[in-house]
Amino acid sequence: xxxxxxxxxxxxxxxxxxxxxxxxxxxxxxxxxxxxxxxxxxxxxxxxxxxxxxxxxxxxxxxxxxxxxxxxxxxxxxxxxxxxxxxxxxxxxxxxxxxxxxxxxxxxxxxxxxxxxxxxxxxxxxxxxxxxxxxxxxxxxxxxxxxxxxxxxxxxxxxxxxxxxxx
Length: 167
Fold this sequence. Notes:
The protein is of the alpha+beta class and 167 residues long. It contains four helices and nine strands.
């Protein structure tokens, strides 16, 4: 044990279930292939890991496919606030595409913001950035609960989860 005092802690993370993203993409492609208004079009979503590419014949269709994608993701508990939507790119002819990145992990800027929110609160906890996670530790479990409530209230523009509770 070596005399290390272990304090209760938890991690603030941002994770997305890749399988749920894949399921949503499959559902979008299935729906688009059967819809009359997309008949004969090249509308579809391709997935490469966490980068999705939305293809369509027109910008209007592109927006429609993206709307369906957002609905399917939301239904599968993937928070659409984690989507980083790229700009429209022209492909051959007048076809268009747009990349949509599913962001995972707490990026450095956001991690710094979280740490600052926690520090400014004067709650008796320590917050440290560890890769794409923010670790929060404190002597009392109640204070950790208060910290989660504070971060939930303060950071509303990006989906965060709280896990690895240790006593």
